Amino acid sequence: MTEQSPGGRALLVGAGLVFALPSIFGTLGFGLWLALTRVGFMVVALTAGSTLVSRSERAPVIDGWLGAGPRGPDRFRWMDQAKRLWETVWERFDEVALWFISACAVAGLIAVFVPYQVGFDLFGRTTWIGAVLGALIGTLIKRGTGMELPLASLLLLKGGGGAAAVALLLTSTPLPFRVWRSGSRGWIAGSLMVMSSAAVGALIGSAFL
């Protein structure tokens, strides 16, 4: 089974969803529809990323999951891979705990020392500017750690508005690829992700948050 076959793509998407599970679970705190939107955004990005981003820029943990199991015939190997993905689900929550707690601590300090007016002026005064800035910040967040969740909450707390928060959540969608390191095609994919995240945030962000 190759990654370009339907079964191979399905396993890659499944591995990506496991990688993103802590973030997806945390997004439920912002509402079911936003969580579903983020999952849909991720599935589209994963499908496109499997074509645009080179395999060498895939997160090593994904190769570990998809390479699990005996090297038997292709028609049996996918069962071993799927079983390994299922066993990995709860391991992901333990792996991201430190990152998430650290982000909560940083967000708490910013909430204490940064005035509300600063957040409103930067992110909340103009919807499109706030969405673009939120999307750009999302590109800096370590993927698959849930760090974006307290930061999105901080934006809402400090007057950033739903557009900036939704754009940040979409751009930081946990993809198991190092998008920006994949040459020109990776930069194209990353730029499209930033622009689409900002557009979705600006257009419907306020409906979610």
Walk me through the structure.
- With 209 residues, the protein is mostly helical.
- The chain has one domain (6-208).
- Helix content is 76%, strand content 0%.
- It has 9 helices and no strands.
- Helix 6 runs parallel beside helix 8 (161-171) and helix 7 runs antiparallel to helix 8 (161-171).
- The protein is globular.
- The termini are far apart.
- The model is unreliable at 1-5 and 68-73 (pLDDT under 50).
> How much helical structure, as a percent, in the residues?
over 70%
Beta-strand residue percentage: under 5%
The helix/strand order is: HHHHHHHHH
Rg over CA atoms:
18 Å
* Class inferred from helices and paired strands: mainly alpha
How much is the average pLDDT?
A: 78
Short note summarizing the structure:
With 209 residues, this protein is mainly alpha-helical. Helix content is 76%, strand content 0%. It has one domain.
